[in-house]
Amino acid sequence: MKYSAIAIDGPAGSGKSTVAKSIARTIGFTYIDTGAMYRAITLKALELNISDLGDEKNYEFINDTRLDFIDGKMHMDGRDVSKEIRSEEVVKHVSLVSSLLYVREALVREQRNLAKRANVIMDGRDIGTNVLTDADLKIYLTAKVEVRAYRRYLELKDAGSTMTLDDVINDVIRRDTYDSTRKHNPLRKAEDAIEIDTSSLTIEEISQMIINLFKELKHE
User: Fold this and answer.
1) Within a 10 A sphere around the Cβ of 61, how many other Cβ atoms?
2) pLDDT tens across 16-54, in order?
3) Residue 64, number of CB atoms within 10 A of its CB
4) Which of 11, 13, 105, 201 is deepest in the core (most CB within 10 A)?
5) Residue 141 in contact with residue 128, Cβ under 8 Å?
6) Which pTM was predicted?
7) Count of alpha carbons within 13 Å of 42, Cβ hemisphere only?
8) Side-chain half-sphere exposure of 137, counting CA atoms within 13 A
9) How far apart are the C-alpha atoms of 193 and 113, rounded to whole Å?
């Protein structure tokens, strides 16, 4: 059976995860938050007190790590880590960890396997360009830096972070630079992706736009 897939890419704070979750609920697709998977691995590396997070040899633990999405929440080794992966410390280091080839190859294999088992909507930074190059629909979400930073600031605040808005703005700019210039599968818009600026749109508006685009494709 050939399953359908929607790929959503974009920088931090563009609304990818929230929009993808909304669409998944509406059309009954399985939502795969690839960013949460990278954050979970970052969390485990921190919990293992790995001193050099930039050394690929330190990530063999991935082979013995179980990642699951249960009711839209990230579970690692049977434990709900959906709040912990949003912590300030994880956010600070996830770009470095996710830039490592060993980590990316391991998680991309898992992401592709998930797409073979169900209709999925998957969001991240290289879904349309690398993970699901044959996705039925590819979307690239973007927004002004200030808007994206404010969204991230609210997320971090809910997670108990003490970062100021200025701190978050600087962190978003840093992550944009890191993600778009990393050696392996950098953040970029796929040639056949449809770009949507979410700066002044509600989640409902963005979600409906993407659902309509998907329905149009399926009725061509």
Assistant:
1) 12
2) 989 999 999 999 999 999 989 999 999 999 999 999 999
3) 7
4) 13
5) no
6) 0.84
7) 26
8) 23
9) 22
